[in-house]
């Protein structure tokens, strides 16, 4: 099957906030448009009060950057914009500049499916200041949503403890693009299949589905409906049993299952979409086993999420497969990740990089300045700590001290003897050219699985997860502190 990689093949350069364009114009007017800069995209808190986050969205970003340009219709629209006095918002020279603008940035990013944590740079963009600035809104739009949904999917699949989770959220998703991106991110996060056929076509995700209550209601009896469905799909029979009476629905499914067996086919299972799922799944399991269908699956749906699935597991519900929709694709309990994109350094004509910091009364809102990277230390296949460091740091030292950027009392000494280390930021674009070998979505999903295995279950529990150590290397922490104090002193003069 051919999988479409470039979901958006035309330019989306105007998919941005207006102030990005006004800043771009001002950079151009002030002669700063080509000054080299570095921006970092990161988030400040794990979503869902959880202990980890799953990075997603890089594939969309690659397509966006490869197609980045302003076409004639874009430029005509900008040229027609007027100020309050009737003058043009953007002068012709700037429009001409945009017409000739070619994407030329370096982008380094963590791979999709990587487990990440607050303050870690998920994406680092280096290049002309004007280009870096214009990338802010679309990169945040892509990463914020897909990372949020991939993380939600991961939490749900962790709660399911190895049972397949099917994403059924298309009809409740936030518009067409929201549905497609959610299906993709859900699969990356661990779901087994989607009901979204277009997502199946575009991304190569397995699709799944049976029938709705309307199918049953269109016949005179439930039994007639089941027989008719078995005639149409003898190899894919999962019967929805709760249209009228769940127990009677299970009986009807068993009756049709026996007819299928006489024809050399096998009923795959039943689905329950309402009521007491723990109770009715146990009844269904008992009835199916007694009737000679021990391999028939019990599928459950009905506004499920990780908390409800965990509760049903505790109740020993006899459910084999979970259909999850609304609360997954809308990230029902947290509608946004809150990732940000901050300037970290600018380069002067003499080649010197100047670190930049945003000062705030809230320590959590103070960014990490300078050109930095992140390394993950592990031992025997288990992650121990992540260190954010200045890129010129010697990574062959015997030990390091990392300091929590928001709480200097939280420190950890890392003895690197016998530890493995991995730089999490991988080169994606160099001077505007893609140098990254893009994995397919199934490889990304496997990357998620491998990454999660690196972390202790204490970091993955749903309630009060243990905090995984992430910190600034000591010299970076000192540089940041000195720069903040300098800027605060400057502000009071």
SSE arrangement:
Blueprint: H1 18-29, E1 36-42, E2 53-54, H2 58-66, H3 72-79, H4 92-99, E3 106-109, E4 115-116, E5 123-128, H5 129-134, H6 136-160, E6 165-167, H7 175-189, E7 193-194, H8 197-203, H9 213-217, H10 222-232, E8 238-240, H11 246-262, E9 269-272, H12 277-290, E10 297-300, H13 306-314, E11 321-324, H14 326-329, E12 340-347, E13 353-355, E14 372-379, E15 382-390, E16 399-404, E17 407-415, E18 420-423, E19 426-430, E20 433-434, H15 441-453, H16 457-460, E21 470-473, H17 474-492
Parallel strand pairs: 6-7, 6-11, 8-9, 9-10, 10-11, 15-21
Antiparallel strand pairs: 1-5, 1-12, 2-4, 3-5, 3-19, 12-13, 14-15, 14-18, 16-17, 16-21, 19-20
Helix pairs in contact: 2-6, 3-4, 6-7, 6-13, 7-15, 10-11, 11-12
Family: Belongs to the NAPRTase family.
Domain Nicotinate phosphoribosyltransferase C-terminal: 374-479
Enzyme class: ligase
Could you describe the 3D structure shown?
One of its GO terms (cellular component) is cytosol. The chain is α/β, with parallel strands linked by helices and 493 residues long. The protein folds into 2 domains: 18-149 and 335-492, Alpha-Beta Barrel (nicotinate phosphoribosyltransferase), CATH 3.20.140.10; 163-329, TIM Barrel (Alpha-Beta Barrel). Helices cover 38% and strands 20% of the residues. The chain has a 7-stranded antiparallel β-sheet with strand order 13-12-1-5-3-19-20. The radius of gyration is 27 Å and the shape is globular. The chain starts with 17 loop residues before the first helix and ends with a helix.
């Amino acid at each position: 099957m051919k999988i479409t990689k470039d979901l958006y093949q035309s330019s989306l350069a105007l998919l941005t906030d207006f102030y990005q364009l006004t800043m771009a114009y001002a950079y151009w007017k002030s002669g700063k448009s080509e000054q080299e800069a570095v921006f970092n995209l990161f988030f400040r808190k794990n979503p869902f009060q959880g202990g980890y986050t799953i990075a997603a969205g890089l594939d969309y970003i690659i397509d966006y950057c490869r197609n980045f340009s302003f076409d004639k219709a874009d430029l005509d629209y900008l040229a027609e914009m007027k100020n309050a006095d009737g003058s043009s918002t953007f002068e012709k020279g700037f429009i001409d500049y945009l017409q000739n603008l070619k994407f030329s940035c370096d982008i380094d990013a963590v791979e999709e499916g990587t487990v990440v944590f607050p303050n870690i740079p998920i994406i680092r963009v280096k290049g002309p200041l004007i280009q870096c600035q214009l990338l802010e809104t679309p990169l945040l739009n892509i990463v914020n949503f897909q990372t949020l949904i991939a993380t939600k999917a991961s939490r749900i699949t962790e709660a399911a403890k190895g049972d397949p989770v099917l994403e059924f959220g298309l009809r409740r998703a936030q518009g067409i693009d929201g549905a497609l991106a959610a299906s993709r991110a859900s699969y990356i996060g661990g779901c087994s299949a989607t009901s979204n056929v277009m997502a199946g076509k575009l991304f190569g995700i397995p699709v799944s589905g049976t029938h709705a209550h309307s199918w049953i209601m269109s016949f005179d009896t439930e039994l007639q409906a089941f027989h008719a469905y078995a005639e149409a799909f003898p190899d894919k029979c999962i019967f929805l049993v709760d249209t009228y009476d769940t127990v009677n629905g299970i009986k009807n499914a068993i009756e049709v299952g026996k007819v299928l067996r006489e024809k050399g086919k096998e009923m795959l299972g039943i689905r329950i979409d309402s009521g007491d799922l723990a109770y009715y799944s146990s009844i269904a399991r008992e009835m199916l086993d007694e009737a000679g269908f021990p391999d028939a699956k019990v599928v459950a749906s009905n506004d499920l999420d990780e908390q409800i699935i965990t509760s049903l597991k505790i109740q020993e519900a006899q459910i084999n497969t979970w259909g999850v929709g609304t609360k997954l694709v809308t990230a029902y309990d947290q509608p946004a990740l809150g990732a940000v994109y901050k300037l970290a350094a600018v380069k002067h004509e003499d080649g010197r990089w100047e670190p930049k910091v945003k000062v705030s009364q809230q320590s959590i809102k103070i960014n990490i300045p300078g050109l930095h990277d992140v390394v993950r230390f592990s031992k025997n296949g288990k992650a121990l700590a992540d260190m954010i460091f200045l890129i010129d740091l010697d990574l062959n030292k015997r030990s390091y001290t990392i300091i929590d950027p928001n709480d200097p009392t939280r420190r950890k000494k890392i003895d690197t003897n016998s530890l493995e280390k991995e730089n999490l930021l991988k080169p994606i674009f160099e001077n505007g050219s893609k140098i990254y070998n893009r994995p397919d979505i199934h490889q990304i999903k496997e990357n998620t699985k491998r990454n999660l295995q690196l972390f202790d279950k204490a970091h993955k529990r749903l309630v009060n997860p243990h905090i995984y150590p992430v910190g600034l290397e000591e010299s970076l922490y000192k540089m940041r502190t000195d720069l903040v104090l300098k800027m605060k002193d400057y502000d009071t003069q």
